Protein backbone atom coordinates (compact mmCIF):
# COMPACT_ATOMS: atom_id res chain seq x y z
CA UNK A 1 0.00 0.00 0.00
CA UNK A 2 1.32 3.44 -0.93
CA UNK A 3 2.52 5.79 1.77
CA UNK A 4 0.40 8.85 2.60
CA UNK A 5 1.21 11.93 0.55
CA UNK A 6 1.33 15.49 1.85
CA UNK A 7 -1.66 17.80 1.87
CA UNK A 8 -0.04 20.14 -0.66
CA UNK A 9 0.77 17.22 -2.98
CA UNK A 10 -2.82 15.95 -2.79
CA UNK A 11 -4.24 19.40 -3.47
CA UNK A 12 -1.89 19.77 -6.45
CA UNK A 13 -3.33 16.57 -7.93
CA UNK A 14 -6.83 17.97 -7.45
CA UNK A 15 -5.68 21.10 -9.30
CA UNK A 16 -4.67 19.03 -12.33
CA UNK A 17 -8.24 17.85 -12.98
CA UNK A 18 -9.61 19.05 -16.32
CA UNK A 19 -12.80 21.15 -16.31
CA UNK A 20 -15.99 19.56 -17.60
CA UNK A 21 -16.40 22.01 -20.47
CA UNK A 22 -18.60 25.04 -20.88
CA UNK A 23 -21.99 26.26 -22.04
CA UNK A 24 -23.69 29.61 -22.65
CA UNK A 25 -26.55 30.58 -20.35
CA UNK A 26 -28.67 33.70 -19.78
CA UNK A 27 -27.09 36.04 -17.24
CA UNK A 28 -30.28 35.79 -15.17
CA UNK A 29 -29.64 32.05 -14.75
CA UNK A 30 -25.90 32.32 -14.04
CA UNK A 31 -25.91 32.83 -10.26
CA UNK A 32 -23.36 30.55 -8.63
CA UNK A 33 -21.82 29.52 -11.96
CA UNK A 34 -18.15 29.97 -12.90
CA UNK A 35 -17.10 32.01 -15.92
CA UNK A 36 -15.39 29.90 -18.57
CA UNK A 37 -14.41 32.92 -20.66
CA UNK A 38 -13.44 36.50 -19.86
CA UNK A 39 -16.46 38.82 -19.61
CA UNK A 40 -15.88 41.79 -21.91
CA UNK A 41 -17.79 45.06 -21.55
CA UNK A 42 -20.04 45.97 -24.45
CA UNK A 43 -19.49 49.69 -23.75
CA UNK A 44 -17.93 52.00 -21.21
CA UNK A 45 -19.52 52.68 -17.83
CA UNK A 46 -20.83 55.17 -17.15
CA UNK A 47 -21.65 55.79 -20.82
CA UNK A 48 -21.50 59.57 -20.15
CA UNK A 49 -20.71 61.76 -17.17
CA UNK A 50 -23.47 61.39 -14.57
CA UNK A 51 -24.44 63.19 -11.39
CA UNK A 52 -23.88 61.43 -8.09
CA UNK A 53 -26.34 63.68 -6.22
CA UNK A 54 -29.56 65.63 -6.76
CA UNK A 55 -28.74 69.26 -7.53
CA UNK A 56 -27.88 71.65 -10.37
CA UNK A 57 -25.29 71.29 -13.14
CA UNK A 58 -23.36 74.51 -13.71
CA UNK A 59 -20.21 75.95 -15.27
CA UNK A 60 -18.07 76.12 -12.18
CA UNK A 61 -15.77 78.96 -13.26
CA UNK A 62 -18.74 81.19 -14.13
CA UNK A 63 -20.77 80.57 -10.95
CA UNK A 64 -20.61 82.80 -7.88
CA UNK A 65 -22.48 82.24 -4.59
CA UNK A 66 -25.60 84.40 -4.34
CA UNK A 67 -25.76 85.08 -8.08
CA UNK A 68 -29.00 84.11 -9.84
CA UNK A 69 -28.71 81.61 -12.71
CA UNK A 70 -31.32 80.70 -15.30
CA UNK A 71 -32.61 77.11 -15.04
CA UNK A 72 -32.79 76.00 -18.66
CA UNK A 73 -33.66 72.31 -18.34
CA UNK A 74 -33.97 69.16 -16.25
CA UNK A 75 -32.02 65.91 -16.52
CA UNK A 76 -33.39 62.73 -14.97
CA UNK A 77 -32.17 59.13 -14.97
CA UNK A 78 -33.54 57.64 -18.17
CA UNK A 79 -34.45 61.06 -19.59
CA UNK A 80 -31.26 63.10 -19.95
CA UNK A 81 -31.22 66.75 -21.01
CA UNK A 82 -29.13 66.91 -24.19
CA UNK A 83 -28.31 70.60 -24.53
CA UNK A 84 -25.25 72.62 -23.51
CA UNK A 85 -24.91 74.66 -20.31
CA UNK A 86 -23.25 78.07 -20.55
CA UNK A 87 -22.24 80.79 -18.07
CA UNK A 88 -25.20 82.11 -16.06
CA UNK A 89 -27.18 78.92 -16.67
CA UNK A 90 -28.03 75.79 -14.67
CA UNK A 91 -29.76 72.49 -15.35
CA UNK A 92 -31.68 70.65 -12.67
CA UNK A 93 -30.15 67.15 -12.36
CA UNK A 94 -31.04 64.07 -10.37
CA UNK A 95 -28.83 61.26 -9.11
CA UNK A 96 -27.76 59.00 -11.98
CA UNK A 97 -28.78 61.48 -14.67
CA UNK A 98 -26.45 62.66 -17.40
CA UNK A 99 -24.51 65.86 -16.78
CA UNK A 100 -25.04 68.25 -19.76
CA UNK A 101 -22.23 69.37 -22.00
CA UNK A 102 -20.41 72.41 -20.62
CA UNK A 103 -21.21 71.71 -16.96
CA UNK A 104 -18.22 71.08 -14.72
CA UNK A 105 -19.88 70.82 -11.31
CA UNK A 106 -23.10 69.71 -9.68
CA UNK A 107 -24.08 71.84 -6.70
CA UNK A 108 -26.32 69.79 -4.43
CA UNK A 109 -29.86 70.95 -3.78
CA UNK A 110 -29.22 71.52 -0.08
CA UNK A 111 -27.19 74.61 -1.06
CA UNK A 112 -29.70 75.87 -3.65
CA UNK A 113 -32.47 78.47 -3.42
CA UNK A 114 -34.97 78.05 -6.26
CA UNK A 115 -37.24 80.84 -7.47
CA UNK A 116 -39.28 79.76 -10.47
CA UNK A 117 -36.94 79.50 -13.46
CA UNK A 118 -33.86 80.70 -11.61
CA UNK A 119 -31.62 79.41 -8.83
CA UNK A 120 -28.79 80.69 -6.65
CA UNK A 121 -26.43 79.01 -4.20
CA UNK A 122 -25.12 79.56 -0.69
CA UNK A 123 -21.36 80.13 -0.22
CA UNK A 124 -21.02 76.83 1.69
CA UNK A 125 -21.45 74.45 -1.24
CA UNK A 126 -17.78 73.37 -1.03
CA UNK A 127 -15.27 71.96 -3.53
CA UNK A 128 -16.90 68.59 -4.42
CA UNK A 129 -18.07 68.30 -8.04
CA UNK A 130 -20.46 65.33 -7.59
CA UNK A 131 -19.81 64.13 -11.15
CA UNK A 132 -18.88 60.55 -12.08
CA UNK A 133 -16.77 60.75 -15.23
CA UNK A 134 -17.64 58.78 -18.36
CA UNK A 135 -15.77 55.45 -18.41
CA UNK A 136 -14.57 55.86 -14.82
CA UNK A 137 -15.89 52.40 -13.89
CA UNK A 138 -14.59 50.58 -16.97
CA UNK A 139 -13.86 51.27 -20.63
CA UNK A 140 -15.54 49.76 -23.66
CA UNK A 141 -14.11 46.31 -24.49
CA UNK A 142 -12.47 46.13 -21.07
CA UNK A 143 -12.29 42.77 -19.32
CA UNK A 144 -14.74 43.22 -16.47
CA UNK A 145 -14.32 39.70 -15.03
CA UNK A 146 -11.72 37.05 -15.87
CA UNK A 147 -12.46 33.42 -16.65
CA UNK A 148 -12.61 31.38 -13.45
CA UNK A 149 -14.66 33.98 -11.55
CA UNK A 150 -17.61 32.56 -9.62
CA UNK A 151 -20.75 34.63 -10.13
CA UNK A 152 -21.72 35.43 -6.56
CA UNK A 153 -24.52 37.95 -5.94
CA UNK A 154 -22.19 40.94 -5.72
CA UNK A 155 -20.17 39.86 -8.76
CA UNK A 156 -23.37 39.41 -10.79
CA UNK A 157 -23.90 43.16 -10.40
CA UNK A 158 -20.61 43.85 -12.18
CA UNK A 159 -21.40 41.21 -14.79
CA UNK A 160 -24.71 42.89 -15.55
CA UNK A 161 -23.00 46.24 -15.92
CA UNK A 162 -21.07 44.81 -18.89
CA UNK A 163 -24.42 44.80 -20.76
CA UNK A 164 -24.18 41.17 -21.87
CA UNK A 165 -27.37 39.08 -21.94
CA UNK A 166 -25.48 35.78 -21.86
CA UNK A 167 -22.30 34.43 -20.31
CA UNK A 168 -20.12 31.39 -20.98
CA UNK A 169 -19.81 29.28 -17.84
CA UNK A 170 -18.45 25.93 -16.76
CA UNK A 171 -20.82 22.98 -16.81
CA UNK A 172 -22.43 21.99 -13.53
CA UNK A 173 -20.82 18.88 -11.99
CA UNK A 174 -23.26 16.02 -11.41
CA UNK A 175 -22.42 14.48 -8.05
CA UNK A 176 -23.52 11.18 -6.51
CA UNK A 177 -23.03 10.58 -2.79
CA UNK A 178 -22.65 7.05 -1.47
CA UNK A 179 -22.59 6.38 2.28
CA UNK A 180 -21.33 2.93 3.24
CA UNK A 181 -21.90 1.03 6.47
CA UNK A 182 -24.12 -1.69 7.95
CA UNK A 183 -25.02 0.64 10.80
CA UNK A 184 -26.41 3.50 8.71
CA UNK A 185 -30.07 4.46 8.41
CA UNK A 186 -31.76 7.57 7.08
CA UNK A 187 -32.33 10.27 9.73
CA UNK A 188 -35.73 9.66 11.28
CA UNK A 189 -35.48 5.89 10.81
CA UNK A 190 -32.45 4.93 12.89
CA UNK A 191 -34.47 4.72 16.14
CA UNK A 192 -36.29 1.67 14.79
CA UNK A 193 -33.13 -0.52 14.88
CA UNK A 194 -31.06 -0.91 18.06
CA UNK A 195 -27.72 -1.03 16.22
CA UNK A 196 -28.41 1.77 13.72
CA UNK A 197 -27.16 5.36 13.64
CA UNK A 198 -28.46 8.22 11.47
CA UNK A 199 -26.53 8.75 8.25
CA UNK A 200 -25.59 12.40 8.65
CA UNK A 201 -22.41 12.81 6.61
CA UNK A 202 -24.25 12.68 3.30
CA UNK A 203 -26.43 15.59 4.38
CA UNK A 204 -23.44 17.81 5.08
CA UNK A 205 -21.47 16.72 2.02
CA UNK A 206 -24.48 17.27 -0.25
CA UNK A 207 -25.06 20.74 1.18
CA UNK A 208 -21.38 21.62 0.76
CA UNK A 209 -21.38 20.35 -2.83
CA UNK A 210 -24.53 22.30 -3.70
CA UNK A 211 -23.08 25.47 -2.19
CA UNK A 212 -20.03 24.92 -4.42
CA UNK A 213 -22.20 24.76 -7.55
CA UNK A 214 -22.81 21.02 -7.94
CA UNK A 215 -26.02 19.17 -8.76
CA UNK A 216 -26.71 16.20 -6.48
CA UNK A 217 -28.08 13.47 -8.74
CA UNK A 218 -28.49 10.83 -6.04
CA UNK A 219 -27.76 10.12 -2.36
CA UNK A 220 -27.49 6.45 -1.53
CA UNK A 221 -26.83 4.32 1.55
CA UNK A 222 -25.42 0.82 1.15
CA UNK A 223 -24.35 -1.79 3.73
CA UNK A 224 -20.88 -3.28 3.77
CA UNK A 225 -21.58 -5.85 1.08
CA UNK A 226 -18.95 -5.91 -1.67
CA UNK A 227 -21.23 -7.29 -4.38
CA UNK A 228 -23.98 -4.74 -3.69
CA UNK A 229 -21.48 -1.90 -3.41
CA UNK A 230 -19.79 -2.87 -6.67
CA UNK A 231 -23.09 -2.94 -8.55
CA UNK A 232 -24.19 0.38 -7.03
CA UNK A 233 -20.81 1.96 -7.81
CA UNK A 234 -21.29 1.12 -11.48
CA UNK A 235 -24.74 2.73 -11.51
CA UNK A 236 -23.49 5.90 -9.83
CA UNK A 237 -20.51 6.22 -12.16
CA UNK A 238 -22.89 6.10 -15.12
CA UNK A 239 -25.06 8.87 -13.69
CA UNK A 240 -22.47 11.36 -12.47
CA UNK A 241 -19.22 13.19 -13.11
CA UNK A 242 -18.11 12.62 -9.53
CA UNK A 243 -18.97 10.00 -6.92
CA UNK A 244 -18.26 10.92 -3.30
CA UNK A 245 -17.99 7.84 -1.07
CA UNK A 246 -18.05 8.09 2.71
CA UNK A 247 -16.72 5.37 4.99
CA UNK A 248 -15.15 2.02 4.22
CA UNK A 249 -11.74 3.56 3.54
CA UNK A 250 -9.63 1.87 6.23
CA UNK A 251 -8.02 -1.57 6.05
CA UNK A 252 -10.56 -3.61 7.99
CA UNK A 253 -12.19 -6.77 6.73
CA UNK A 254 -15.41 -4.87 5.93
CA UNK A 255 -13.92 -1.74 4.37
CA UNK A 256 -14.97 -2.11 0.74
CA UNK A 257 -15.02 1.45 -0.63
CA UNK A 258 -11.98 1.22 -2.90
CA UNK A 259 -12.61 -2.43 -3.75
CA UNK A 260 -16.11 -1.68 -5.01
CA UNK A 261 -14.70 0.79 -7.53
CA UNK A 262 -11.68 -1.35 -8.41
CA UNK A 263 -14.04 -3.55 -10.43
CA UNK A 264 -14.71 -0.45 -12.58
CA UNK A 265 -11.03 0.13 -13.40
CA UNK A 266 -10.30 2.56 -10.57
CA UNK A 267 -7.05 4.45 -11.13
CA UNK A 268 -5.96 6.03 -7.87
CA UNK A 269 -4.30 9.43 -7.76
CA UNK A 270 -3.76 9.11 -4.00
CA UNK A 271 -5.06 6.76 -1.33
CA UNK A 272 -3.99 8.41 1.92
CA UNK A 273 -2.98 11.92 2.97
CA UNK A 274 -0.76 12.71 5.93
CA UNK A 275 -3.27 14.95 7.69
CA UNK A 276 -5.30 14.90 10.86
CA UNK A 277 -8.22 14.42 10.75
CA UNK A 278 -8.83 12.67 7.45
CA UNK A 279 -5.84 10.43 6.76
CA UNK A 280 -7.96 7.81 4.88
CA UNK A 281 -9.16 10.30 2.21
CA UNK A 282 -8.56 8.97 -1.32
CA UNK A 283 -9.09 10.13 -4.88
CA UNK A 284 -9.11 8.51 -8.31
CA UNK A 285 -10.84 8.04 -11.63
CA UNK A 286 -13.01 5.35 -13.21
CA UNK A 287 -13.11 6.02 -16.97
CA UNK A 288 -14.90 9.36 -17.40
CA UNK A 289 -15.97 9.80 -13.76
CA UNK A 290 -14.00 10.84 -10.70
CA UNK A 291 -14.25 9.24 -7.26
CA UNK A 292 -13.44 10.95 -3.96
CA UNK A 293 -13.40 8.81 -0.84
CA UNK A 294 -14.02 10.52 2.51
CA UNK A 295 -13.63 9.03 6.00
CA UNK A 296 -16.63 7.63 7.84
CA UNK A 297 -16.27 9.83 10.92
CA UNK A 298 -18.47 12.94 10.62
CA UNK A 299 -15.88 15.58 11.48
CA UNK A 300 -13.17 13.92 9.37
CA UNK A 301 -15.58 13.72 6.44
CA UNK A 302 -16.63 17.36 6.64
CA UNK A 303 -13.05 18.60 7.10
CA UNK A 304 -11.79 16.62 4.11
CA UNK A 305 -14.82 17.72 2.08
CA UNK A 306 -13.84 21.33 2.77
CA UNK A 307 -10.19 20.64 1.98
CA UNK A 308 -10.63 18.50 -1.16
CA UNK A 309 -14.23 18.34 -2.43
CA UNK A 310 -14.76 22.09 -2.55
CA UNK A 311 -11.62 22.80 -4.65
CA UNK A 312 -12.35 19.74 -6.82
CA UNK A 313 -15.80 21.10 -7.67
CA UNK A 314 -14.30 24.51 -8.38
CA UNK A 315 -11.79 22.92 -10.75
CA UNK A 316 -14.46 20.92 -12.59
CA UNK A 317 -16.27 24.19 -13.28
CA UNK A 318 -13.13 25.88 -14.57
CA UNK A 319 -12.22 27.68 -11.36
CA UNK A 320 -9.08 27.66 -9.21
CA UNK A 321 -8.46 24.78 -6.80
CA UNK A 322 -6.37 26.97 -4.49
CA UNK A 323 -7.73 27.73 -1.02
CA UNK A 324 -8.15 31.26 0.31
CA UNK A 325 -6.10 31.11 3.49
CA UNK A 326 -6.31 33.94 5.99
CA UNK A 327 -3.75 35.02 8.58
CA UNK A 328 -5.65 35.49 11.84
CA UNK A 329 -4.82 35.77 15.55
CA UNK A 330 -5.37 33.06 18.13
CA UNK A 331 -7.66 34.06 20.99
CA UNK A 332 -6.44 31.11 23.09
CA UNK A 333 -3.43 28.81 23.19
CA UNK A 334 -3.08 25.99 20.66
CA UNK A 335 -1.55 22.59 21.56
CA UNK A 336 1.43 21.21 19.68
CA UNK A 337 0.83 19.17 16.52
CA UNK A 338 2.00 15.59 16.14
CA UNK A 339 3.75 13.99 13.14
CA UNK A 340 0.83 14.80 10.81
CA UNK A 341 -0.28 18.17 9.48
CA UNK A 342 -3.35 19.01 11.55
CA UNK A 343 -6.45 21.04 10.83
CA UNK A 344 -7.83 22.27 14.12
CA UNK A 345 -11.49 23.22 14.28
CA UNK A 346 -12.04 26.66 15.77
CA UNK A 347 -14.68 29.29 16.30
CA UNK A 348 -14.30 33.02 15.91
CA UNK A 349 -14.88 35.58 18.62
CA UNK A 350 -13.93 39.24 19.01
CA UNK A 351 -10.40 38.32 20.12
CA UNK A 352 -9.71 35.91 17.28
CA UNK A 353 -9.74 32.15 16.74
CA UNK A 354 -10.70 29.92 19.67
CA UNK A 355 -9.69 26.25 19.14
CA UNK A 356 -12.53 23.96 20.14
CA UNK A 357 -11.93 21.77 23.17
CA UNK A 358 -13.38 18.67 21.51
CA UNK A 359 -11.34 17.72 18.43
CA UNK A 360 -12.71 14.14 18.26
CA UNK A 361 -13.11 13.18 14.59
CA UNK A 362 -16.34 11.32 15.38
CA UNK A 363 -18.03 14.10 17.34
CA UNK A 364 -20.86 15.94 15.61
CA UNK A 365 -22.03 18.61 18.05
CA UNK A 366 -18.72 20.56 17.87
CA UNK A 367 -19.40 21.05 14.16
CA UNK A 368 -22.14 23.51 15.15
CA UNK A 369 -19.45 25.85 16.50
CA UNK A 370 -16.58 25.21 14.08
CA UNK A 371 -16.42 27.95 11.45
CA UNK A 372 -12.64 27.94 10.83
CA UNK A 373 -9.88 25.39 10.26
CA UNK A 374 -6.47 26.31 11.66
CA UNK A 375 -3.63 24.83 9.61
CA UNK A 376 -0.88 23.40 11.81
CA UNK A 377 2.24 21.95 10.13
CA UNK A 378 3.54 18.62 11.41
CA UNK A 379 5.46 18.93 14.68
CA UNK A 380 4.40 22.55 15.15
CA UNK A 381 5.07 23.54 18.80
CA UNK A 382 2.35 24.81 21.08
CA UNK A 383 1.32 28.38 20.27
CA UNK A 384 0.30 31.12 22.69
CA UNK A 385 -2.73 33.34 22.38
CA UNK A 386 -2.28 36.30 19.97
CA UNK A 387 0.00 34.24 17.70
CA UNK A 388 -0.91 34.70 14.04
CA UNK A 389 -1.94 31.48 12.27
CA UNK A 390 -3.12 30.37 8.82
CA UNK A 391 -6.82 29.55 8.70
CA UNK A 392 -9.52 28.56 6.23
CA UNK A 393 -13.21 29.40 6.48
CA UNK A 394 -15.03 26.16 7.30
TrEMBL record:
Residues in MoaB/Mog domain copies: 176-315
Record's keyword annotation contains Magnesium: yes
Enzyme class: transferase
E.C. code: 2.10.1.1
Pathway the protein acts in: Cofactor biosynthesis; molybdopterin biosynthesis
Entry function: Catalyzes the insertion of molybdate into adenylated molybdopterin with the concomitant release of AMP.
Family classification: Belongs to the MoeA family.
Record-given protein name: Molybdopterin molybdenumtransferase
Species of provenance: Tsuneonella deserti
